[in-house]
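User: My advisor asked me to double-check a structure prediction for Stage V sporulation protein E before group meeting. I don't want to rely on an old file, so could you generate it fresh from this sequence?
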Amino acid sequence: MRAQRELGPGNKQKKILSAMVLLSVCLIIIIGRLFFVQIVGSTGKYARQVDQLVEEVPIKASRGDIYDRNNNVLAKDSSASAINVIPFEVENPEKLINTLATRLSLKPEDVKNQITVLENDIVEVKTGISGDKAKTILSHNFPGVTIDDSNLYFEPILITDPDGVAKALAADLETAYEDLYDKATQKEGQPVLIKGKVDNTLAQEIKESEKILDENGEVDSYNGIEILDDYRRYYTNGNFASYILGFTGLDYTGLYGVESTYDDILKGDDGVVYFQKDANGNQIPSQTKILKEPTQGEDIVLTIDSNIQLMAENAVAQAAAQWKTKSVTAIIMDAKTGDILAMTSKPDYNLNDPFTLDAAFLQTHAADLQGKTTEEQLAEMYKNPAVSFIYEPGSTFKALTGSAALEEGVVTPETIVYCSGSIQVGDAVINCATGPHGAETVSDAIAHSCNPGLVQIIEAMDPDVFYQYVYNFGLGARTGIELDGEESGIINRLPTENGSINEVDYATFSFGQGLATTPIQMISALNCVVNNGYYVNPTIISNATKGKETESLKQIISKETSLATREIMRKVVGYDSEMSSLSEGYSIGGKTGTAEKFIDGAYSSSKYVTSFYCFAPIEDPKYSILVVLDEPAVGAYGSTSAAPTAISLMKQALNYSSADAELTDANSQEIQKGAITIPDLLGQQKDFAASILDEKGIRYSFDLGQGGDVVQSQSIPVGSIYDVNTELVLTLGAPASETTGTVIVPDVKGLSIQSANEILSGLGLNLQMVGNGFATSQIPAPSTVVEKGSDITVTFAP
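Assistant: Sure, here is a fresh prediction for Stage V sporulation protein E from the sequence you gave:
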């Protein structure tokens, strides 16, 4: 026998090395497999486990309040409750349906649909499913039935045939049909919103009425009711400063006005509450914890003075009625700072009911709204004319032309121009609407609003220099005011074929034709002329809110030119007997404007925009006011329609601020600084109405009337100045039906049953469900206008 050869040192090392390599490869394979199973492959499993064990419910943060410059509240949140039901915990559905339908003015069938909604999360049915069994189960292709990692799951809301699922799987798994059917039809284990923005007292009364006691007399449950914190937005007077404030949508996000532009500041940070769930996905009340408390939004302080705003709203409403206008807009500005003290347009809309088209708006804008959907019509109504209405300024622009020419030194106030009643410019003849004036000074040409005189003034200037003044006055660009929808206007510089300036267009530019501005642009530019030549940016937000100092001012013309222009504008008022009479005793200067509207490529002979800009006192301007009337009745001019409104407002503002002005109008309304206006409380809950009145310092009492806790009427008219010697009496009654009025049907396609119902019920509409899953179609179609309380049939599918 051959002797066994002994291994040498080299062979031993090779064998050891091979073994180490083999072990390393095995270890890498094991580590890779573990990584895949525990990290890569566990992602979905972990998500399912979290989804099955934890429910996340947002807690809405309260929005910040909006105040005027005197700290009067204009918009605020009130604490309210959201009534939810956990369908899985409902023990007496008939009693619950009756309570909720009766106390919340809801349809019983709608409540029934909500409290019987199926679970929309996965429910674990059985573990340890073998591969063969899994194949058999999945071969049925049942919607809402899945197997993962040998575990069988149901998603009840997606199961279209629970009876068929239970029968088939009972045979496959040798499991009781009843157990499987219960899992396939399991009710939602998390809160389902029934109604939000419910008065806190009413919500607690409803919860207490559903209390179920155990055999020891202890509270066993509240029949599935869950009360969560909620808020509702309230505007102290629905139509007050509507274009400034704007409103919030169904999701509590600001949509228009400062509610939109300052939404990030006002909205705060929502909180989150996590509900721990058991193995069946049902909430464990004792384990509920709040992970993050909501943070209330910051308050906003506006430059608006509520008393001056009230003056403006009343004056504009009167002008709109008198002149049967399409719209009337008024802006009152602090001449030194650019603070907007009042901004209003009529018609407007009710902030507490913003999705209802205003009747006056429908009437005055009928031609513009033809062929538009209700949603498009609402979008038109929300536009703020003060910043979005583009119009030719007409003769108010002459003050800008004159001041630019005076500043450049091409003319003086005493320079002579000549008006024969018309002037030839190229192939065009430009007429004078107020002449002929013969020889007149530049000062008188502007005061008389003489077009030929203005043409001669502008022709004395280099066009490039003149247009630079136009841009420096802020025309052709947005002012940057903190409101949505601002337009930039139009400044055309149309050249001839050889590239030179178009002399006719340039000539007509001198008297405000061939360009387009917005009211906010025009008042800012004219204010610059009278404010010693300094341009101040218009603002609606106080420096306290912005947290910064006023930006450095830009001087466009000299103090001397401003003084000369102010004296010219004094003549405008003094030369007109009616305006002079209206402003008697007050130091008021101004400039009128009457411009034909440019429609479909031509100037209209019947539709005009009239306007009047005024400032006071002339010696040291405190206020600038612009009033613009869109399409007033035939026969209206700036001096007869816009001027009386603006001058009346100026007198009230001067009186209110105790400026050095001698009052001669014994009938002028005296509103004391710091005066309190009566808010609109109709339809508000008793407790909330009381909180508003307490904050304003208004004495009040309640008349119980026919019973109930909703304000039905108030003894002092909305918007009136509060007399501290009087008491406001609020008559209470039962809440009005939420099925009155009209509403636009929203698009709910793609939403779950709960989400669709939240949106529809929030609008006062009733969800009629067909099927389960997610919305695929609806009747009526989106954007249809229907009566509140209407049924909206929505088809749902997996």
